[in-house]
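Minutes, project check-in
Item: structure for the 134-residue chain
Input as provided by the requester:
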Amino acid sequence: MSDLNPCMTCGACCAYFRVSFYWAEASDGGGLVPAQLTDPVSPFLRCMKGTNSKQPRCTSLEGEIGSKVSCAIYHHRPSPCREFAMSGEKGEENEACNRARRRYGLPPLYKDMLFHTSLDAATSVLTAVQSAAK
């Protein structure tokens, strides 16, 4: 993946899914996720505040979905956030990613899109396509 990561402008997954995880990932259980940003789901599960509702949006998501977003606790985010793969990452499409993007009117991401190559390779491909069009 390159610096052209579309997750920096998306954020749809943070406002589509309930982010549930084992309670011990929270700071009061010895983990890194700030406990005050979580809600209990069961005796063994917690979720990120804002994600256990009919119209979820993680309270740690900053910015406008589809424009420019960031995670206020990126380095302390729970395992579901760390493990959620952007569609096309490692050459595999993630239907869950594309489903969340669809909810916000964003186009799907595919494994062969240019942002999954290095910046130099993407520039070379674009230059070749533009030269061929002349």
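Outcome recorded: The chain has three helices and five strands.
No further action items on this chain.
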